[in-house]
Design goal:
The complex is a heterodimer.
Chain A: E1 5-7, E2 10-13, E3 19-24, E4 31-37, E5 43-50, E6 53-56, E7 65-68, E8 75-79, E9 88-95, E10 107-108, E11 112-116
Parallel strand pairs in A: 2-11
Antiparallel strand pairs in A: 1-3, 3-8, 4-5, 4-9, 5-6, 7-8, 9-10, 9-11
Chain B: E1 3-5, E2 10-14, E3 19-21, E4 24-26, E5 32-39, E6 46-52, E7 60-61, E8 64-69, E9 74-79, E10 88-96, E11 107-108, E12 112-117
Parallel strand pairs in B: 2-12
Antiparallel strand pairs in B: 1-4, 3-9, 5-6, 5-10, 7-8, 8-9, 10-11, 10-12
The chains are: A mainly beta, B mainly beta.
């Protein structure tokens, strides 16, 4: 059973470009979460999505950041017009449907390291 | 809002010895979940152990166990018979047991870097 997949693992963008980060949840998981980890910091919640719905985006910056989880395909975190401060590791996590046991557990992907030059 | 505090930025332990990592949290909720995650140099976040707040019994997973003190809002991780592969950053995390709003997210501490000396 494959774990959470994220790609690319490393992404380099120049200031002003767009960054697209992809996340495929574990098989059978319908909930996706995105977190950001700045250097020397813990993970900070950004957004929580279910298929075709954004449930909670309270941790997402209001501008330049967006996320989606379409009916088919991976979840996408999109950062437009990147700035140096966006350099961080971005982690995706997934959890099973609420009806299943331990739906409160989140399983993480390996992360995408974004570097803005 | 809930907060999670890990007061030990770094800890070290000798191989085969026991080490305890501290975590305290602040919440007004009565039901919640607590987790310890391990982040080795590969940066992959690995779930080590979880505790449901309504359970009085401390969780145990092989060499890993917790000391959950609900009244004190304390959730420490004990690693027994430490191995070189245990060297990593360890994060304590909180999640509400209630649904709705922002309750689904994990709130993390800043982490404790554990070094295991041979």
């Amino acid at each position: 059973n494959a774990g959470v997949m994220q790609n690319p693992r490393h992404l380099v963008r120049r200031r002003g470009q767009e960054a697209r980060l992809r996340c495929s949840p574990m098989k059978g998981h319908s909930h996706v979460y995105w977190y950001r980890q700045l250097p020397e910091e813990g993970l900070k919640f950004m957004v929580y999505l279910q298929k075709e719905n954004i449930i909670d985006e309270s941790g997402m910056p209001k501008e330049r950041f967006s996320a989606e989880f379409p009916k088919e395909g991976p979840s996408i975190l999109r950062i437009q017009q990147v700035v140096r401060g966006d350099s961080a590791a971005y982690f995706c996590a997934s959890s099973p449907p609420l009806a299943q046991g331990r739906s409160y557990e989140q399983y993480f992907g390996p992360g995408t390291r974004l570097t803005v030059t | 809002a809930q907060t999670v505090t890990q007061s030990q930025p770094e800890m070290s332990v000798q191989e085969a010895e026991t080490v305890t990592l501290s975590c305290t949290y602040d919440t007004s909720e009565s039901d919640y979940y607590l987790f310890w995650y391990k982040q080795p140099p590969s940066r992959q976040m690995i779930l080590v152990i979880r505790q449901e707040a309504y359970k009085q019994q401390n969780a145990t997973e092989n060499r890993f166990s917790v000391n959950f003190q609900k009244a004190a809002k304390s959730f420490s991780l004990k690693i027994s018979d430490s191995q070189l592969g245990d060297a990593a950053m360890y994060f304590c995390a909180y999640r509400s047991a209630f649904s709705g709003g922002s309750n689904y997210k994990l709130t993390f501490g800043k982490g404790t870097l554990l070094t295991v000396n041979p």
